[in-house]
Amino acid sequence: MISAEREVFVRLRDARYIDDEMLRTLLRRLDLEEAAAYREAT
Q1: Which terminus of the chain is less hemmed in, N or C, by CB atoms within 10 Å?
Q2: Per residue in 4-21, is it b (16+ CB within 10 Å) or e — as a string?
Q3: Helix-helix angle 20-41:2-14, to 10 degrees
């Protein structure tokens, strides 16, 4: 699911709906979400 979200955000950046800074912010949030999910699973 998170990888699909990443792809969507990159496509939005490529289509110029969001800028690089917003993409970095969104990807960072996904990284944190992914890390939290990993900690809960172990």
Answers
A1: C
A2: eebeebeeebeeeebeee
A3: 180
Tokens 């969507």 identify what position?
8
* Burial class of 27 by CB neighbour count within 10 A (0 to 12, 13 to 18, 19+): middle
Please, are residues 21 and 12 in contact by the beta-carbon 8 Å criterion? Answer: no
**pTM, full prediction:** 0.86
Helices (H), 1-42: 2-14, 20-41
